Amino acid sequence: DDPPGYTRLPEADPTALLDFAAARVDDLDDVILLGIGGSGLGARMLRYALVDPAESRPGYPRLHVVDNVDPRRLYYLLTTLDAVATLALVVTKSGSTAETMAGYAVVRGWLEATLGVEEARRRLVAVTDPEKGDLRAIADADGLDTFAVPPEVGGRFSVLSPVGLLPAALMGLDVTELLTGAALMRRAALRPAWRSNPALALALALHQHHQDGRRNVAVMPYADGLVDFAAWFAQLWAESLGKRSDYGPTPQAVLGATDQHSQLQLYTQGPRDRVVWLLETAEHDVEVAVPEREYGYASLDYLAGRGLGELLAAERRGTTLALIKAGTPSLLTTLPKLEERELGALIFLCEAAVSFSGRLAELNPYDQPGVEDGKRATYALLGRPGHTERREADAALESRFDDDLVSRA
Ligand code: PA5
């Protein structure tokens, strides 16, 4: 078989997007990214992992990923931003997803109302298919800046294309290092023996657990920066592998140590239907120590002089021990540190693991017919031309479902 399109991304030349970012960042305070699913989660993961969650890297704009269409989000965001110093990235491979297109129209309206048509155009960038889709047509007609999502790369595999790398460059991340990490992992993922191939080992382990009845995969990083990595992984895993009624690896994004106080009870004494993937970083870029002194209280004295990173590491080990005692299997990945190279490698590790898992489960991990069906049902509901013919059948389905609820109540 041909290797999947995403495997070529680590060697793609990022010069054009780096040049674009370098030319624009000085004028920017904020970047809004409009994109959902694979078009938004990757950038969110990069931002959370490599930039302080609330802020930006010095000299670079803040990134706001707007994926959902909850009106509160855009309402409050647009009330606080300065349009002059804002750039909007409209990221949709199909060029037609409802949430993204609605967000685009709202943000464009806001920019035009504040700055006029010409200045608004300068602040809109389309990241979409090189030829197809409405967003491509709009961008071509209006002369917007554009970056192409390679057609052979699926949405949830696209973080190392302009979908993730353009926002990364605008945030001041080291794009070359991200790609280097991914390229190094790609080399490892080609090794034939599973013991020296981390992606194959991860896929085999999770597949074997699934076959043994442990369908749930809790992804539990002990690092706040990886909280959105867990969400990104959950989408990659669910949307790629949820294709057979008798096969259901079910990812759950959790955070250590926070969710020790929420989920660990279930993982240790609940049904034995789960494997826990723990992640940690060997080093923290900063450390905060508990002041060294005699507190006179048992709950504090043993902590005196200890770093919070040290405590977090002990929490992770404590969780592993609790899981072992309970008979709940776990895997552990230790990143040397959380920087671009390590994250690039982790991203490629998961993408390659999902490819291997698709093979093991004998399914195609690269399509998403269930997601597409939900999109088309929404289009039909809202009367999008070309999508209305299914409305009658959907309405009949809805009324049967409503009747059923009423009769059960
Ligand atoms: O992984 C996928 O293909 C999906 O999650 C898409 O990324 C998501 O539905 C958004 O699609 P688009 O980029 O076409 O707006």
Describe this structure in words.
The radius of gyration is 23 Å and the shape is globular. The strands form two sheets. Strands 2-1-3-4-5 form a five-stranded parallel beta sheet, with helices on both faces. A four-stranded parallel beta sheet has the order 7-6-8-9, with helices on both faces. The relative contact order is 0.12. 48% of the residues lie in helices and 12% in strands. By secondary structure, it is an alpha/beta fold. 5-phosphoarabinonic acid binds at residues 36-39, 92-94, 97, 100, 154-156, 239, 368, 371. 5-phosphoarabinonic acid binds next to loops.
Key features?
single chain; 4-stranded parallel sheet; 16 helices
Radius of gyration: 23 Å
- Beta-strand proportion: 5-15%
Give the uncertain stretches in residue-range form.
Answer: none
Principal-axis shape equals: globular
Number of helices: 16
Largest sheet properties: 5 strands, parallel
Helix residue percentage: 40-55%
Order of helical and strand elements: HEHEHEHHEHEHHHEHEHEHHEHHH
Given the helix and strand composition, which structural class is it? alpha/beta
Write out the distinct hetero groups bound to the structure.
5-phosphoarabinonic acid
| Strand line-up in the sheet with most strands | 2-1-3-4-5
Mean pLDDT value: 95
